[in-house]
């Protein structure tokens, strides 16, 4: 059994890279001290690919193809983590 520890940073970085490629975005902030994640006893990542406060991004959130791209990118990042 593989023991991962509680450091989520490597997992988050791989997911971030995949989401950036899938969406064509760059420079999204990666925060490691979000309170809802800080208290977990396992690796945890919060993915926010778009924000409803941004009119253009809010429209993307209604697009099923956008959700599919994000989901596939997150899965690819997780696969990369376990393949290391």
Q: Work out the number of β strands.
A: 0
Helix content: 40-55%
State the secondary-structure class.
Answer: mainly alpha
Largest sheet: none
> How many separate helices?
4
Q: Summarize model confidence as the mean pLDDT.
A: 83
User: Which overall shape is indicated by the principal axes computed on the Cα atoms?
Assistant: globular
**Uncertain segments:** 1-5
- Radius of gyration, Cα only, in angstroms? 14 Å
Oligomeric state of the chains present here: single chain
How far is it from the N-terminal to the C-terminal residue, by CA? 15 Å
How do the SSEs run, as a string of H and E?
HHHH
Tell me the strand percentage band.
under 5%
Concise structural overview:
55% of the residues lie in helices and 0% in strands. It is an all-alpha fold.
Outline the structure in words.
With 84 residues, the protein is mainly α. It has four helices and no strands. The protein has helices spanning 9-23, 35-38, 55-61, 64-83. Helix 1 (9-23) packs across helix 4. The two termini are 15 Å apart. Mean pLDDT is 83; it is low at 1-5.
Which helices and strands, and how do they pair?
Elements: H1 9-23, H2 35-38, H3 55-61, H4 64-83
Helix pairs in contact: 1-4
């Amino acid at each position: 059994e593989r023991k991962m520890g509680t450091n989520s940073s490597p997992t988050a970085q791989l997911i971030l890279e995949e989401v950036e490629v899938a969406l064509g975005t760059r420079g999204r902030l990666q925060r490691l001290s979000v309170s809802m994640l800080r208290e977990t006893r396992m690796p945890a990542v919060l993915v926010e690919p778009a924000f409803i406060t941004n009119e253009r991004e809010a429209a993307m959130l209604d697009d099923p193809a956008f959700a599919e791209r994000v989901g596939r990118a997150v899965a690819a990042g997780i696969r990369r983590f376990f393949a290391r």
